[in-house]
Amino acid sequence: MPFMNEILPDTAEAFAKLRDSIFEGGELDRKTKELIAIASSVLMRCQYCVDVHSQRAVAHGASKKEIAEAIAVAMFIAGGSQLGWTNVYGESVYDLVFGEKKPDKSEKEKLEKGKGCCCGN
To answer: How far is 18 from 13, CA to CA, in rounded Å?
Structure first.
């Protein structure tokens, strides 16, 4: 991150120290840490980080299949979190829209007046 080095050198140095403290030593081997970083980068949608951590994972002995599996784990987590998120609709909007849950008086008035949405409609 050249701009950080130039504009905020102390911050860049602190970030580098954090990186080193996480990726060097510890209980997990470097290849495993890089595979975790790949999966995390996929979830954060950072192509740059996916590329860098994939190269580092290969340098530490990871195979193409291991990298693909790390990405597949990230895809599963992303999909599962979206499926889990939809549960909120079963408890509120879906029931309300399909009449399985009767709105209370204030909700009904808001709906009739076209108010109550986050956008004010």
So the answer is: 9
CB 78 within 8 A of CB 69: no
Express each pLDDT in 88-108 by its tens digit: 665 566 666 676 655 566 666
The terminus-to-terminus CA distance of the chain in angstroms comes to 44
Assign 23 to helix, strand or coil: helix
The closest of 51, 27, 29, 25 to 38, measured between CA atoms, is 51
Nearest-angstrom CA–CA distance, 13 and 21 = 12
How confident is the model over 6-65, as pLDDT tens digits? 999 999 999 999 999 999 999 999 999 999 999 999 999 999 999 999 999 999 999 999
Taking the C-alpha atoms of residue 32 and residue 90, their distance in angstroms, rounded to an integer, is 38
Residue 101 and residue 93: Cα distance in Å, rounded? 9
